[in-house]
Amino acid sequence: MIRMRYLWLFFAGFLYTATVAAQTVSQPTNTWGTWFIGTVLMPSSPTTHWGGYVEVQARSNGLFDQYFYNELKAGVSYDLDRNVQVMVVGGRYQTNDYQDLSAGPLNLEKRVWEQLSLNQYLNRIRFEHRYRLEQRWFDFRGNTSECRNRFRYRLNLFIPLNTPTIGSGTVFASVYDEIFLNPKGPAFERNRLYGGIGYQFSPRWVGQIGWVNQTNYSPASFNQNQFSPIVSAGKNNLVLSVIYRIIRKGNTAEQLPSQPD
């Protein structure tokens, strides 16, 4: 009971700090958007270290309204160890003007990324460290194109609330912070902060509901003897996600309910 009390205090303090940090942007917004994430995972098994996943995502500018963005991505993974995984993924990302969807995409992005994930366990707290290197190709409306690279790091915490480990019937808390770094500038391009609650219905099905604040940063500039500092703009979003796992024979190890997004 004492240990659970400390876990609750830790989680509450983390969320409070995260919320305060998410609100300290130079251009705050009161508008809420919505993210829908559906994922099919195939974890590795004792007989093969190979796995994979497919994900579909849609986003709206408002709460269940003003759809403007979608993602479709798939990849293969290989487990070097129970807690060490590498992955290669390709995806298609489309951004539209929600006020005029019939006009076609504002931007169509193709992306390939390489990823390393490390898991750690401390009593009931699970840590996931995720490192990702992205190669991105953009085609903008107006026949212009651009290539960019980006590095991402995410620290994700999972805390099972009603069971010692995460399995069928477990209610769990999930908190993460992810930074996005761009070698061309701004070096600190984006920050994504998440807090949510999930439930594992069975070895196959996991659902989560949460909040994510995504803050983008534009570079500082100096034009006509005037200096413009870095400008940030953040947006809060409701996140609804569902994960379906393809269970392979002999795979009984605990699976962290990580969102591959």
Task: Give the arrangement of secondary structure elements.
Elements: H1 2-23, E1 32-42, E2 50-62, E3 65-81, E4 84-95, E5 107-122, E6 125-140, E7 144-160, E8 171-181, E9 188-200, E10 205-218, E11 221-223, E12 226-228, E13 231-245
Parallel strand pairs: 1-13
Antiparallel strand pairs: 1-2, 2-3, 3-4, 4-5, 5-6, 6-7, 7-8, 8-9, 9-10, 10-13, 11-12
Low-confidence stretches: 15-30
- Count of helical stretches: 1
What is the CATH architecture assignment?
Beta Barrel
What would CATH call the class?
Answer: Mainly Beta
Q: What fraction of residues sit in β-strands?
A: over 45%
Rg from C-alpha positions? Answer: 19 Å
Using the alpha-carbon principal axes, give the shape: globular
Average pLDDT number: 87
Distance between the terminal alpha carbons, to the nearest Å?
34 Å
> How many β-strand stretches?
13
- Element-by-element helix/strand order: HEEEEEEEEEEEEE
Main beta sheet strand tally, sense and closure: 11 strands, mixed, barrel
The SS-based structural class is mainly beta
Which strand order does the major sheet show? Answer: 1-2-3-4-5-6-7-8-9-10-13
Keywords: Signal
Organism: Spirosoma rhododendri
Protein name: DUF2490 domain-containing protein
InterPro entries: DUF2490
Kindly describe this structure.
By secondary structure, the protein is mainly beta. It has one domain: Porin, CATH 2.40.160. Helix content is 8%, strand content 62%. The strands form 2 sheets. The protein has an 11-stranded mixed β-barrel with strand order 1-2-3-4-5-6-7-8-9-10-13. A two-stranded antiparallel sheet has the order 11-12. About 6% of the residues have low confidence.
